[in-house]
Amino acid sequence: MFWNKKNPDLYKLALGTGLKTQKEKWTVTEISNYDWGVDGRSVEYLLTSGDGREAYLEVERFEGENEIYFSEVVPIERNILEQAIKDAGIIFKDINFELDEHYNGSFKNETLMTSWRPVESFLFYDLNEMMITIEVIENTKFQAFYGKEITENEIKF
Q: Mind listing the pLDDT tens digit for each residue in 139-150?
């Protein structure tokens, strides 16, 4: 895919890029790269809306196609996240999510110029393909995200 304003390469968005998805307008405010070893690489964009909300757009190339995930941080206590990883399941909004994928890798925030840091990612899905992702950074920081896989057609520039 060639870079152009109408149809840019989602793997190469720049800071300040504006886009519309999930019925909201967002601006790319940070860029992080992930290295998942044999499982490939991905890029993650921190998106900020006009009212200050934050969301994440992760883009991973798989077999020549983009896999795109849109998610927002959800406040779930660390002990619940640790238990979810042990049990391979978590209940969120009264819905059961089951562990489906687990990845080990490292990431680097290109905007803040951080060094590479180890990260584990646990992806839990419900029956409607909504997902909870638990990220464990450097085996100490736990964070949860709620979202879903989206298509390129759901993103407008």
A: 999 999 999 999
> So what's the pLDDT on residue 5?
53
**Whole-prediction pTM:** 0.93
Residue range 35-59: average pLDDT?
A: 96
Backbone φ and ψ for 10, nearest 5 degrees, come out as -65, -15
100, 69 contact by CB (below 8 A): no
Which residues have C-beta within 8 Å of that of residue 70, sequence separation ≥ 6? 21, 22, 55, 56, 57, 147, 148, 150, 154
Burial label, 77 (beta-carbon count in 10 A; 0-12, 13-18, 19+): exposed
List Cβ neighbours of 46 (8 Å cut-off, separation of 6 or more): 28, 29, 30, 31, 32, 54, 55, 56, 111
Residue 6's pLDDT band, with cuts at 50, 70 and 90, is low
Q: Could you tell me how many residues make up the chain?
A: 157
